[in-house]
């Protein structure tokens, strides 16, 4: 059993709060987001669009991702491209980035936001297939997306990669052992690669949600990382505390940090 992050945003919120807080700080940035039709990916797409970025969103739910792209254009204007994407298919993932690059006229940022979360239960009751699915989506696909994005960005001499982790990936959490293990992997991947690619002008960030995931706070933190080119591990602890200008101000104070930091 699995679930994806819930869609709690109403059209009223999409058209109101985000427009009100927007300063268009990322105008001209071209961003590709995986898992963009639901949960954190959807909220992240909305946050980037509100800040003036052009975005391409990919999701396995091809109908939803195209409908969302059309909806966001009607609400906000700008450039939004919805593309089908199975993150576990490496060739398809490469094709998604190529198509996003072509439609947006280049890529500056890739956000790996696709994930699945088990509905809970004992480790011994979880099937091998359920465990494999979590590893494939939550870790292996992040490695694939990071590798594909990094190859492009190293060649062009700049770029930002943001991977979505969770604070549960640091201390551990009951009932989600395999999920937690995958998030440990994402945190470790980001820590190593941010140092490895820094000399090439490529920043790698890992944004870790708290135990109670506030998708809006996570999305705002992702945008802050990109706006301030903040690398390393960034943990959002308190749901709802790290939003809008407060997040961006915290990012300013942490500019250049390569060690774990807390926003919120």
From TrEMBL:
Annotated InterPro entries: NAD(P)-bd_dom_sf, SDR_fam
Biased composition (Basic and acidic residues): 1-16
Official protein name in the record: SDR family NAD(P)-dependent oxidoreductase
Signal peptide range: none
Any one Gene Ontology BP term: fatty acid elongation
Region (Disordered): 1-23
Family that this chain belongs to: Belongs to the short-chain dehydrogenases/reductases (SDR) family.
Example GO molecular function: oxidoreductase activity, acting on the CH-OH group of donors, NAD or NADP as acceptor
Top-level taxonomy: Bacteria, Bacillati, Actinomycetota, Actinomycetes, Mycobacteriales
Pfam families to which the protein is assigned, alphabetical: adh_short
